[in-house]
Amino acid sequence: MTFAEHQGGPGPGIEPGSGDPQSPRISPTPTRPSVPLIIPYILTISLITGIVPHRKRINNNLDSLYVLTLNIIDAELELVPESMWDDYQIRKVAKNLGKKYNEMLLDSNYMHGAIERYFPGMSNRMGRPDIFHTLLNVTQDSILNKKGHLNVNIHTKHNSIIRVSPETRIPKSYNRFAGLFEKLLTRGDLKSPDGKTLISIGEGRFEDLLRGDGTDILMSPKGEIAKMNEVVKFKDMNVFIGGFSEGDFKSHVYERLKAFSIFDEELTIWTVGWEIMSSYERMIGLL
Predict the structure, then answer these.
(1) Cα–Cα 20 to 30 A to 217, which of 12, 41, 198, 272?
(2) CATH says 68-77+128-283 is which class?
(3) Mean pLDDT of 213-218
(4) Which H or E run includes 144?
């Protein structure tokens, strides 16, 4: 539990009037604030550090090389595009949130109309950071991750690769999550107070995440219908999932990967991820 959650605080100062969300400071030894004005400074621990590293992992004597890697491909995770900066809705949202319009996450929950004006027909796909908030809370809090057998990478549609350390915990509050990833996309890697990199970002294409050793698997509604035990069958797996809520991959994934589907309807990213993690946990004997 983060200090902010323990105190029941509202979030790390990204609502209007609560401070500058673009320049949060770290308080390495948080204590109970005596006056409300101290809250934004203390709560920024959650925003900057990925919050609090997990406790030391225990393998239960399993081979430490047994690792499931989840790769999210063509993720709809980006800042507001420059072409939209002058839109009145974007400016209004920025003012209401107390943020800079050129350093905000594109979010269709607040910017649906603006997205439709500049990118007709794309407002249900673009601007979905909420997907990754849910997904990363599922992955980082999983038994598999706590035991040290999970890696998570996010490849964005603009060919950046975000690597999330297994030690990183994600804010339960969406607003705090948004502030965290806005800082990541504008200023680069996020580190803990002791210098550990908790979330990194760099250039890279989806092909950079391929292993080419037979353990690469693509999950897609267009894939071959298969039972989970037919998909999750390697002790060291490299799984690819789409990072969007509508449409199909933009990267040429079907040319490089065999695709599987585990259900006859489309599933959310976090549902697919959870099913794979649960099956993998059982396969390697964690459960």
Answers:
(1) 198
(2) alpha beta
(3) 94
(4) helix 143-146
